[in-house]
Amino acid sequence: MEANPHPALGLLKRAHPPETASAIFTEKILHKPLHLRPTSPDPNRQDARAHRRLHRLRKKEKSKRRQKPKPLSAKERRITGIYEIDKKSQNYGIYLPLYRMWLAYIWEILGMVKGKQTWVTAQAAGAKLASADFHGAKLMVVRSKCVSTVGLRGIVVRDTKFTFQIITEKNELKTIPKTHTVFRFQIPQPDAIDELADPDKTKDISADGMGQNALIFELHGSSFEQRAIDRATKKFKQRNMTEL
Q1: Burial classification of residue 208, based on how many CB atoms lie within 10 Å of its CB (0-12 exposed, 13-18 middle, 19 or more buried)
Q2: Longest dimension (CA), the chain
Q3: pLDDT at 204
Q4: With left for phi above 0 and alpha for psi between -120 and 50, is residue 73 left, alpha or beta?
Q5: What are the backbone angles phi and psi of residue 21, rounded to the nearest 5°?
């Protein structure tokens, strides 16, 4: 009797004759090669799953570098206060150079040149002024459903979709809604550029009379409820004003 017979051979003898069980045991079990796998992975070789994960992370990081930075949301802008003007900056004199820059900008748009008489008509200048940027312009409220804003005047420091924010000569920041409000602004002739170079004289020009032959325009805020960047690409058409 064999000492310590193989357990697989004993199980096979229960199911098959002794000769058949011995043949199956010899062919399928005794002489079958046994492939052993190392119990610990090779430290120089990464797992396939980890390799795919690393590849995805590198691809995602590379795509982030190519993308433009995400703009701030409205909530983030309110929290950071990037558009807020602090008390120290609410000074009328700080924005007088901005007003002079705006005059040079509006003269160029209307084709007004110093020493040369230029005819400016409402039909030709209307579309240009409607799409112009009014940051730096001097506006005065002449009519409004909000009576407390009538008579306010100042330099525009922010032009939003529904409001104008102006700095008055009393160094006050005022927010004026565009809806149901009529604004007036005047454009002096380019011959007044020498006077505008002097801050004291510029302050005098801010009164109702802005020099001789100044162009006077009225802006209806209800028809002007667009951002400056949106007006620059929009085509305006002449139409009747139902509010008049």
Answers
A1: exposed
A2: 133
A3: 44
A4: beta
A5: -65, -40
Distance CA 206, CA 151 (A): 13
Q: Mean pLDDT across the stretch 117-130?
A: 75
The gap from C-alpha 237 to its chain's centroid, in whole angstroms, comes to 28
What DSSP designation does 217 have?
E
What's the DSSP call for residue 43? T
**69, 102, 109, 158, 210 from 214: Cα distances, Å:** 45, 15, 16, 24, 6
Per the CB < 8 A criterion, the answer to whether 63 and 156 are in contact is: no
Lowest-confidence region among 60-64, 77-81, 88-92, 202-206 = 202-206
List the structure tokens of 187: 């454009």
CA distance 2 to 25: 15
161 close to 181: Cβ distance less than 8 angstroms:
no
What does the block give as tokens for 56?
């995805």
pLDDT of residue 219: 87
Element holding 202 (H helix, E strand): helix 199-205
How much is the pTM? 0.63
Distances (CA, A) of 233 to 45, 178, 206, 224: 58, 20, 30, 14
What percentage of the chain has pLDDT greater than the value 70? 79
